[in-house]
Predict the structure.
Amino acid sequence: MPEAKPSGDSGAGHELSDLSPRAIAIFGIALAATVIACLILAVWIFGFFAARETKLDVPPSPLAKQAAPAGPHLQVSAPKDLAEMLAAEEKILNSYDWVDRQAGIVRIPIDRAMQLLVERGLPASPKGSGTHDGTVGTRRSGQLSQPAKAQRK
């Protein structure tokens, strides 16, 4: 294979025509001016549309005032909250308190209520309270009569 021989000057190993500093400066100034012009245009467009939006935005009626919603109710300490809830329930179960002072209704401790229930028994139900209406049957002398539909047949 024949070798390629360099033609002409063998001493030239770099670009003979360099970039012009003047052309680089002009390009940089033009680029900066374009960026600044775009920035000014963007600010002007933003201002234009913001002013337009405020003109088109109808203010709410003074009668339609809405309170800001409350923040989320986060549970910070679940074990502490559980202990407080159980203590409050325990207090209700084991203490005397008024339920309705005008009607004379009180709350008594659960242990005392169970003792009274054992001593006195359940309250007796009024006579003739076997059923609420006559469609299912009525109580007569301790026996339940047949339903009304069955009596017709």
The CA atoms of residues 138 and 144 lie 6 Å apart. The beta strands are 97-100, 105-107, 139-140, 143-144. Confidence is low (pLDDT under 50) at residues 134-153. Helices lie at 21-56, 78-93, 110-120, 148-152.
